[in-house]
Write a structure and sequence with these properties.
Layout: H1 10-58
Length: about 70
């Protein structure tokens, strides 16, 4: 007698294929969102650093003396 547990099940195969496709879609959307957030964070950090350098290099403003 053959073991029924080892027999191929087409319904299980279809269900697993669908689940794998859905998991792949969710994984790719999550990965894309993570990359977008990392890019935004790096852009903001770079902008902040250059703003600090610009203010530090500009120094104190030079005041003109009032003429009498």
């Amino acid at each position: 007698m053959r073991n029924l547990w080892l027999k191929k099940n087409p319904y299980m195969s279809l269900w697993l294929s669908g689940a794998n496709a859905a998991a792949g879609s969710v994984r790719s959307h999550g990965s894309a969102q993570a990359k977008r957030q990392a890019t935004t964070a790096m852009t903001n950090a770079t902008r902040d650093i250059f703003d600090l350098w610009a203010h530090a290099l500009a120094g104190a403003p030079v005041r003109k003396r009032k003429s009498r």
